[in-house]
From TrEMBL:
Protein name: Histidine ammonia-lyase
EC number from the UniProt entry: 4.3.1.3
Protein's organism: Mesorhizobium denitrificans
Metabolic or biological pathway, per its Swiss-Prot or TrEMBL entry: Amino-acid degradation; L-histidine degradation into L-glutamate; N-formimidoyl-L-glutamate from L-histidine: step 1/3
Posttranslational modification: Contains an active site 4-methylidene-imidazol-5-one (MIO), which is formed autocatalytically by cyclization and dehydration of residues Ala-Ser-Gly.
Catalytic activity, reaction form: L-histidine = trans-urocanate + NH4(+)
Amino acid sequence: MTEIVLKPGAVSLTDWRAIYRGAVPTLDPSCKANIEASAKAVERIVAKGEPVYGINTGFGKLASVRIPAEDLETLQKNIVLSHAAGVGEPMPVAVVRLMMALKMASLAQGASGVRPQTIAMLQAMLAADVIPVVPCQGSVGASGDLAPLSHMTATMIGVGECFTPHGRVPAHVALVTHGLAPLTLGAKEGLALLNGTQFSTAYALAGLFEAETLFQSALVAGALSTDAAKGSDAPFDPRIHVLRKHATQIETAKTLRNLMAGSAIRESHRVGDERVQDPYCLRCQPQVMGAALDVLRKAADTLATEANGVTDNPLIFAEDDTALSGGNFHAEPVAFAADMIAMAVCEIGSLSERRIAMLVDPALSGMPAFLTPKPGLNSGFMIPQVTAAALVSENKQKAFPASVDSIPTSANQEDHVSMAAHGARRLLGMVENAAGVIGIELLAAAQGCDFHAPLASSPALEAVRALVRGEVPHLDEDRHFHPDMEKAIAMVRDGRVVTAVAGATLPRVSG
């Protein structure tokens, strides 16, 4: 298994993506000195006996309650147990692993007062594939992702459940089985572990990584649909896009030109085609998809910064033994980034559905109704287009900005929250919906190109059509459509559509 060495504060999106895909993270040894200095600073702060939030006081609205020294360990244990109050289905294991790695890298920057052995527990659990069972609901994105991170932390002290290579088991059993002893948390450690934006950030990054594959697949499907409809590549002429000056629009148009380069289908109607302009779903792909790419890249920049930040509270400055309370746990940047990704994913799917609708309409496509040789007796692609419309409509509802919502918590002490957790958690479902639309478009576009035989599309697009036809034959007569759709959707989700066009460079969103 691939190992990724994390340099806290300077981890690339490429590395975060690798961890999400299964790589095992370890910490760069150079961070050890900062971790130890921060932990010793907490020891000195405790020894002074002065009230410091979260170290020897209660939490939230109870910050004015002093906690005696003999109860500090109990204080940290209690905050973990009381805050582990999430509900809902467990987070996907891949997202939990990413969340743990994000927390590990944040704590390792030496501003959280956490001991080396506590951070080492996170690393050891990841290495042993002992992954906490974390309910996915219960965070409002400030004061940090308290409930889900508390469930993560609870497993480190032997409470809760973990997914392991041997199944889902009680946390204390999982730890002992893998040679790990449950932690006893020191001063501030419980608060440091459960405070922060790592739940929201992990979900947002997962959504970003999946959206990148979706975006690239959609460009490929859009180019294939353009050929299936005998659409023009003139709208992709670079002179058009240079005049508007948006770099991502220029890049997207170039990609579409390259994908269609060498298409005999395109050459067959370059002269004598009576159509003056194609529908927007074909003609405006550079404008729409370029704008989506721009938004995704801006979200990627925000999340790259957030993933390398320290977001718990209070923060420890070892140089003068200062603990400063602030608000880095407020996940507003993540909420905005998640909303941007949601809008882009929604539009990618929406444009794809319009291309499907165009292909099945004989008045627009010039092909048999619903792409079946015998319309009437056969329904062809009639209902797959309806399914695509349903998925797009669902994504439109999900795309409403989460960041504009807020609800006061903790007896109005935490009176403005980000809802980043909601905004980020919806992304994987939205990408799944949009991937369903792209998968249906691939089938429709391949079917459309079949009608132009013996003319072939470009080498890049023919490679994609061969991929599709390798698992889904041409639709002559109606058959059980669901298995065909599942196969095509899987090609989108697992990136095979992207890798099929190895000769064509597709835009990257991150890293």
